[in-house]
Design goal:
16 helices, alpha/beta
Length: 376
């Protein structure tokens, strides 16, 4: 693996949309031997992408096996595996939060949120063996796993990384890298979508979804030594402006979906543009000038969905449990209303299987490009 030390995989956040990443990863298995270790020894993930990243890290010695594990889990997923979704449990949880909020701040003993994702914690404990990460690092199948979460205490983006002892932490404006021994709580923190899922306490700090405050998503893999980064995002194609015009004010569900789209995509696009401009600048400098800048060329290949997940989610809206549909109606969401929100919450195998297929087709259409980028 020595010659591949500078290759990294970055998986972004996006709730249920992260199933798309599995399809892309699955396509890459077509040109790798069945017993080959992971072709990108640096793995970085945020939010739901952090869960996919950790699964791959646990199976870094055999890439095919890790992808098959992800594929099986997503294709057999139920909404109730991620958060409580029955009518009684949904509104009972909201009622508990209401009474919790009426207490004085110093008497509040539990995190409040729209949904209770305790089932996700149980699923992660059942499916992931975190001891395998150190084993894969020791055997040089893996160089580093990095999981990013957002600190509600310091307002910094914190990238927790598990690697060999040669990798040091870092601190920059609004972002830090901290060595850690990964466990379930790091994943729960990174995937805690603001207001939707409860915050998580790690040490003395409180954390939420890693996409929040993540002003420089490429920072973590670069600090860990990456020079070639495969980025699998979940940003869907833009809807032409003429189609988006509406005669009515946006509903609360429209606004919530818009905010989630912004959280999960905008900073990555800005960071990719910045990396592209740095590369262009370096191409214009002499070797002496390049050394004086202390900058290095970073190559990125980004893969995003070719299809609109909102439209796919609308087809599967009826697969949402009755309790969740009732809750969404309270914020103005109905099956015939265009919103990004269901595509983030539809942790159902019908929806997930379809967008896995989208990811597979997208990657197969760019397979030569991916293979050339990864030098495989």
């Amino acid at each position: 693996m020595t010659e591949r030390q500078e290759y990294a995989l970055m998986l972004t956040g996006g709730g249920a949309r992260a199933a798309y990443q599995v399809g892309v990863l699955k396509a890459i298995t077509n040109f790798l031997p069945r017993n080959q270790s992971i072709p990108f020894p640096i793995i970085c993930g945020t939010s739901a992408g952090a869960i996919n990243a950790t699964t791959l890290a646990c199976f870094a010695s055999c890439y095919h096996l890790g992808v098959r594990k992800l594929d099986w889990v997503w294709k057999n997923l139920r909404t109730s595996d991620i958060y409580e979704s029955g009518f009684q449990s949904v509104f009972g949880y909201l009622l508990k939060n209401y009474f919790q909020g009426s207490k004085a701040e110093d008497m509040q003993t539990r995190a409040t949120s729209l949904l209770n994702n305790q089932p996700l914690r149980q699923l992660l404990r059942k499916t992931l063996d975190f001891s395998r990460i150190d084993n894969n690092i020791d055997r040089q199948h893996l160089r580093a796993l990095c999981i990013t979460a957002s600190s509600y205490t310091s307002h910094d983006s914190i990238s927790f990384f598990q690697s060999n002892k040669n990798v040091e932490g870092w601190q920059r404006s609004k972002r830090q890298g901290k060595p850690a021994q990964m466990n379930v709580e790091h994943l729960m923190a990174s995937s805690a979508i603001p207001l939707v899922f409860p915050t998580v306490k790690l040490g003395n700090d409180y954390f939420g979804d890693g996409s929040v405050h993540q002003l420089s998503p490429l920072s973590a893999p670069i600090h860990l030594g990456a020079r070639k980064i495969l980025v699998i995002g979940v940003e869907q194609p833009e809807i032409p402006y003429t189609q988006a015009i509406n005669d009515h004010y946006p509903s609360a569900s429209n606004i919530a979906g818009h905010l989630l789209d912004t959280i999960f995509a905008d900073t990555l696009n800005a960071d990719l543009e910045r990396a592209y401009r740095v590369n262009q600048t370096l191409d214009l400098l002499t070797e002496k000038q390049k050394k004086e800048t202390h900058l290095q060329k970073i190559e990125c290949l980004e893969i995003n969905p070719s299809e609109n997940f909102n439209q796919i989610a609308a087809k599967h809206y009826h697969h949402l449990p009755a309790g969740i549909r009732s809750l969404l109606r309270l914020v103005g969401l109905k099956p015939d209303i265009e919103s990004s929100l269901p595509s983030y919450l539809l942790f159902d195998h019908h929806f997930c299987s379809e967008i896995i297929d989208v990811g597979y087709r997208d990657a197969m259409n760019r397979l030569d490009e991916i293979r050339d980028f990864l030098n495989l």
